[in-house]
Amino acid sequence: MLLIVKNAAIKRRGSDLLISWDNSSKQVSTLDLEMVVIVGNNVEMSSEVINFLSSLNIPVLIHGKRADTALVTPFVNTIAEIRRKLYALDEDSQVLLAKRFIEGKVRGMINVAKYFSYIDKTQVREIEVRLSARDRKSLILEEAALSREAWEELKKFVPSFEGRKPRGEDPINRAIDYAYSIIYALSTHALIAAGLDPYYGLLHANQPGRPSLVYDFSEMFKPVAIHAVIAVARRSRLSLDSEGYLKKDGLELVTKHLYGVLHKRRRTTIRGEFYRKANDLKKFVLDAVDFQPFVYKPM
């Protein structure tokens, strides 16, 4: 993963990338590069660089204060058949999948709270994850209620954190937004690799240009990002720059910790779980094979 903050220019130099700032430059090999992450505005990247990264299947994430953009190369696979069946899923199947995504998210959040409660030798309240909704509208309300309960427990472990507010103007919420943007980019890459349409939502509403399935699918992996941000915030003081972005040192700390968690070896890495779960989702769509969610458990 390569983090580039604002006011930089990216050029190609052979098989490497050359990143230049006003008074310095850095040459980076693409040999083990998984993703390019750009934060903020005023980063210049030529069409040659975009084509080069595309040829290597390296996604580019642009994280902004109000929106995120992921540039991902399409894969060659049986996209037409998979997407035709995805679009034809009945509402019961869509709600079932959405429930599994939410179950994975909330159980993962509870596991993160239990992890930090063990470190702090405190107790967290048990949250019963029971989703009884039979339609999208009811499920959205259930998800919101469960997420609020989980955040009430999680915020106890972050100094001076009042609670989750997407695109909030405080450093912790900014850090969570940034970590989520990486989860979205990885989810986009995995879904496209499986031949699925990242814009066709099951729970999140379909809107032009909105990667709704990415938002649905990524719910399971958000606890990984939450863990990384809480771990960093407990050790270091995160702060914002004059434009409202996390300062460079904070971005680097969150990126490093999240990258470490994603690549920590278990039976498989969490990074690999994105592709395994996207493939499981494809099997559900094509052959109605039961889909079980990814549930994050910190180590």
Automatic annotation (TrEMBL):
Enzyme class: hydrolase
Cofactor(s) this protein cannot do without: Mg(2+); Mn(2+)
Highest taxon in the source lineage: Archaea
Alphabetized InterPro entries for the sequence: Cas1, CRISPR-assoc_Cas1, CRISPR-assoc_Cas1_C, CRISPR-assoc_Cas1_N
Function: CRISPR (clustered regularly interspaced short palindromic repeat), is an adaptive immune system that provides protection against mobile genetic elements (viruses, transposable elements and conjugative plasmids). CRISPR clusters contain spacers, sequences complementary to antecedent mobile elements, and target invading nucleic acids. CRISPR clusters are transcribed and processed into CRISPR RNA (crRNA). Acts as a dsDNA endonuclease. Involved in the integration of spacer DNA into the CRISPR cassette.
Subunit description: Homodimer, forms a heterotetramer with a Cas2 homodimer.
Name assigned to this protein: CRISPR-associated endonuclease Cas1
